[in-house]
Each structure stands twice: as structure tokens, then as C-alpha cells.
Amino acid sequence: MSAPIDLDELAAAVAGPQVGDQVWSWHDDEVMTYLGPDEHGSQHVVVIGITGGITAGVGADNSGVKCPVGRVAPADVDVTSDRWDHLFTVAKGKGPSWLGNWFVEVVGSWPTWHKTKRAAVAAGRRRTAIVKWWAEHGTTDYAEMGDQA
After folding, report:
1. Does pTM top 0.85 for this prediction?
2. Partner residues linked to 102 by β-bridges
3. Looking at the 3D structure of the chain, how many domains does it have?
């Protein structure tokens, strides 16, 4: 089995979404404004805009997401298709958790927990769409992604 794709290294070599673009992000269910990488190295920070506050001026509505560019894809990417469902795993956990009972694991990433199976599947499809977008725009080695088509 080959090593997982490092989306951050791939993003450095490919012209991906720019600051101010509307994007799908790894952890958010809605399209958000990309605010660039977090200056503290965090993997995911959501900035809620407040008029006149510390985030004033960062976006049209002063809100968005800060994360490595490899964890976002343009807003026009289809995140609802079930074509790539075989690239992620959704399973029920071993008991109730405040994070939820359902977990999703996408190729090359840590699993995350969700309250409903529907939320886990949506997260898996969104993350797979992001990985596929980077693969199509930055590398031709689809074998790492499990694409046999």
C-alpha cells in the first residue's frame, strides 16, 4: 500500500483556492470563505465575523475558515455524488459518545465522529471530493486514492 497523499505538500505545488475564494472545507457542512492558513498552525479554525471586532475586514461578511489550502476545494466541486463512496468508511462505534456514534474514515486521514449516519456520509463525500479535486489538479497517481476507473 502506498503512503497517503500529503495534501499540504500537493497544495504548495498546485495553484489551488486563494484567500477570499468560496470553498468547501474538510470540517464544514457549508461553503465558506477561505481566509488562508492559520498563523498558529492549527488544522482548522472557523472565524465568525463581528462588526468592528478583531476579524473585521477579512471577508465580505467577516467570516470564513482558516486551514491549510490542501483541506479545501472550490465551491463548485460536487460534494453530493455517491460515485466515490467506496473510498471512505462509515461505521457505527462501540457505544454512545458526546461526539456521536457514527465515524467516517477517508483514505489518508484520521476518523471523525458524527451524531448521525447521514452526517458521517456527508462528511465522507465532502472530504473525498476535496481529495479527488487535488488529485485531478495536482497529480495523476490515482492508485493512491483507490480509483480503479
Report:
1. no
2. 92, 114
3. 1
Q: Is residue 148 part of a domain?
A: no
Report if residue 50 sits inside a domain. yes
Q: Which helix (H) or strand (E) holds 106?
A: strand 102-106
Residue 130: half-sphere exposure toward Cβ, Cα within 13 Å:
32
User: For 19-52, how does the pLDDT look when each residue is reduced to its tens digit (9 = 90+)?
Assistant: 889 999 888 888 888 888 877 766 666 666 544 3
CA angle (136 as vertex; 75, 39 as ends), nearest 5: 55
Half-sphere exposure of 62 (CA within 13 A, CB side): 10
Identity of the amino acid at 92: K
DSSP state of 142: G
Q: Which three cell numbers stand for residue 23?
A: 470553498
